[in-house]
Amino acid sequence: xxxxxxxxxxxxxxxxxxxxxxxxxxxxxxxxxxxxxxxxxxxxxxxxxxxxxxxxxxxxxxxxxxxxxxxxxxxxxxxxxxxxxxxxxxxxxxxxxxxxxxxxxxxxxxxxxxxxxxxxxxxxxxxxxxxxxxxxxxxxxxxx
Length: 144
Known about the structure:
This protein is an alpha+beta fold. It has two domains: about 5-50, SH3 type barrels, CATH 2.30.30.730; about 50-130, Arc Repressor Mutant, subunit A, CATH 1.10.10. About 40% of the residues lie in helices and about 20% in strands. The chain contains four helices and seven strands, in the order βββββββαααα. It has helices at about 60-70, 85-95, 105-120, 130-144; strands spanning about 5-10, 15-20, 25-30, 35-40, 45, 50-55, 60. The strands form two sheets. A five-stranded antiparallel β-sheet has the order 4-3-2-1-5, with no helix packed on it. The chain is globular, with a radius of gyration of 16 Å. The model has no long low-confidence stretch (mean pLDDT about 85).
C-alpha cells in the first residue's frame, strides 16, 4: 500500500485519488464512486503521505500509524468513530501509539486517523507487503 496520490479534501467526505493537474485546480477521483471532480486551490487539500502524527520525541508518518492499527486489529476494522466516545478514541490511539503528544494531537485528528483506516481497509487499500517490495525495488534501481 502506498498513500501516494491519496487525498483528503476539507468539507468533502471520503478520500480521493489525484488524477491530473489543470490550470487552476487538480482533478481528483472519488475512490468510492469513481466520479472525477476538480479541487481548487481554495480547498483544504491534504495528501495522506505528507501527514505526520506528533509524538513526544518526534513525528511519525501516518502510514506507520496505519500499519500499527492494522497489526493491532489483525487486518480488520477498528472502532467506529461516529459511535465511540472521545475517551474511547484517545485510549485506542494510546494502544497504537503510546507516546503520541497529548497536547498537540486533538480528538478530531484521532477520529480522522481511525476513519481513514476504516475507509482504506474497506476498500482493500491496506496491503503493506506490496509497498515494501516496491520500495526495495526502487532503492535497488536508484543505487545502480
